Sequence to fold (377 residues):
Amino acid sequence: MRANCSSSSACPANSSEEELPVGPEVHGNLELVFTVVSAVMMGLLMFSLGCSVEFRKLWSHIRRPWGIAVGLLCQFGLMPLTAYLLAISFSLKPAQAVAVLVMGCCPGGTISNIFTFWVDGDMDLSITMTTCSTVAALGMMPLCLYLYTLSWNLEQNLTIPYQNIGITLVCLTIPVAFGVYVNYRWPKQSKIILKIGAIVGGVLLLVVAVAGVVLAKGSWNSDITLLTISFIFPLIGHVTGFLLALLTHQSWQRCRTISLETGAQNIQMCVTMLQLSFTAKQLVQMLSFPLAYGLFQLLDGFLIVAAYKMYKRRLKNEHRKKNTRCEEGCHNKKSTSPKETGAFLEVNEEVTITSGPSMPMDLHTTLEPTGHISSGT
Fold:
């Protein structure tokens, strides 16, 4: 259904866009090729990431969906509210405000799954959240859009891309299910597929994002306000998602996962919905936002991954230095006081024997007695 946007107050672009270019420059076979390549890329990517999912952990998230509930609250609670507040705060035009709100109401995108893997997040929770948010979008997207546009008095009807949501679900569930099966039957081979798929998938996503921007260059404009919002919006999503997960006492691994899932939106679904709901002239001032959001979303994700890798390397270096000092201290004690060394080894053996049956204990828990004894001698 096309939007009926005859009022100048609802669509101020009608009075000044006669000379502007019409819509994105994507037509015919080129658009078909781009769509097919994107779908194939998504399928291969989700298959490789599915190789990291264990059915037992996946089922535990479904049986105790506390992490999923927090993620859905971030996706359809925080993000639409943030979009609405940004549109009001920056006094956007109605058409631009709708574009921002549609982006906030979209479900999570598959790019979050790649970044979650790179920051050692909970892949089972990430893939489950992406799937559940896509399913929930069937009802939550129209509900959120209806609630937040009540005060805007818009005359156009927003068309929910149910077909696009269904295709996204198929591209998610079938490859992931096949990847889970491969991980169950051939766990060694699945690790190789996972490493290759994460690298290749990241490169392909970047190439598709750049290609999409280049192909749709006719929709770009120089509105600095939309560019500013597209820059801060995903950052707000990452920060608020992390804080909400932290307040609900989620683990650090889940906090990272929920943070990435919250800030990463389904760009393709947003673009599809705008194309279905607005005329070509109106799209000129609207499509620049989801395209810019997608680029800043990638940039933010890479920065988060880089920061995590630096933090992880720093921890490894500190741990290595601590072990070196411990070995030097033990060597000095051995040369000066053999009796103390014997006592240390005896106590150490007792710790090993007593903690031996409790193998599921966390590594930090098993190391605490040893560190305590060595610091006391």
Notes: The first helix runs from residue 28 to 50. The chain is about 75% helix and 0% strand.
